[in-house]
Amino acid sequence: MYHHWSRYLTPDPLHLDLGLACLGVGHQEGRLPVVGPRVLPHHVAVLVTAGSGWFGQVPVEAPAVLWLTPGVAHHYGPHEEWTEWFVDFAGPAAAAYAELGFIGTGVQALETADPVAHEIGRIARVCREEGPYAQVEASSLVHGVLMAIRRSRTAEHADPLLQALARDACLPIPVTEHARRLGVPLSELRHIVKRLTGASPKDYLLAIRLNRAKDLLATSDLPVAAVARRAGYDDPAYFTRIFTRRVGMPPSEFRAQQYRGHTA
Questions:
Q1: What sequence ranges are listed for the domain HTH araC/xylS-type (predicted)?
Q2: Cα separation, 150 vs 116, whole angstroms
Q3: What confidence tens digit (pLDDT) does each residue in 20-71 have?
């Protein structure tokens, strides 16, 4: 005996252009039937909030998320009973979310299921109401589900190494020196940063530096050369080239657009 509730949506191509479109949402609990083997054409995040089971050859213990990947066969089920939420989604943004580490594969353990269940529950409420904007609103909430899963993954938040790297990001030193100061091999640093942020150490540091530079350009009267130094660049010309390539405009133009006056 098990209880099941679900709603399915049919987005049109314009909805898919939003990046992610919600295709369905549901909740089940009890002695659920085995799923598969089957193949789906879209992504599904299955949140197991209670119970235990299996996913292929991998054991599942709540709280955990099961990732059903488009075009990949999956087969899973509970040992006896479990409780799950699920959300089906698709769209061109899914590839970028996967590259950044927000969409996984297989089974991922969670420290807690509550934030993820809350976000999926928001989608469920929208779908129950069946309002005129249900498709757009439900689709917008899928982003929050992916963020909640990422924040809830076991041992993947508040990493002290990542915190130390962010703290020293604006020091004018290369990635190799950051690794030496942190006492880890460069290969390990690359693996940790990629796993936690979806970016390489170089790109992670660059984003922090450019964010710092933008803040200074928008809120201070410092010359561009001084902004460059505070962002970790001894060569203002190199800083300007990097800034222009990533932001799409030189620092002076960004300041002209965004300057809010000197802040105390």
A1: 159-257
A2: 9
A3: 999 999 999 999 999 999 999 999 999 999 999 999 999 999 999 999 999 9
DSSP 235: -
How far apart CA 120 and CA 125 sit, in angstroms, is: 9
User: 185: how many CB neighbours lie within 10 A of its CB?
Assistant: 11
Kindly report the number of other CB atoms within 10 A of residue 5's CB atom.
12
Query: Is the pLDDT assigned to residue 155 strictly greater than 70?
Result: no
Q: Which residues pair with 89 in a beta bridge?
A: 22, 43
Identity of the amino acid at 40 = L
Tokens (6 digits) for 261: 């006056």
- Centre a 10 Å sphere on the Cβ of residue 65 and count the other Cβ atoms it contains: 25
Beta-strand pair 64-68/106-109: antiparallel
CA distances from 32 to 59, 105, 235 (A): 16, 22, 62
Determine which helix (DSSP H) or strand (DSSP E) holds 132, and give its type and residue range.
Answer: none
In this structure, are residues 42 and 139 in contact, taking their beta carbons and an 8 Å threshold? Answer: no
Which amino acid makes up residue 139?
S
Separation CA 98–CA 150 (nearest Å): 11
Domain boundaries, the chain: 2-152, 160-256
Domain 160-256 has CATH 1.10.1740.10: no
Overall pTM surpassing 0.85 (yes/no): no
Look-up of token digits 């509550």: 114
Helix (H, G, I), strand (E, B) or coil at 176: helix
